[in-house]
Amino acid sequence: MTTPIKIDFVSDVSCPWCIVGLGGLEEALRRVGDLVDADIHFQPFELNPAMPAGGQNIVEHIGEKYGSTPAQSAANREMIHARAASVGFTMKTDETSRIYNTFEAHRLLHWAGTEGLDKQAALKHALFTAYFTDGLDPGDHTVLGDAAESVGLDRAAAAEVLSSGRYAEEVRAAEDQWRQKGINSVPAVVINDKYLISGGQPAEVFEQALRTVAAGG
Question: Which domain holds residue 40?
Answer without folding.
Answer: 3-51+103-214
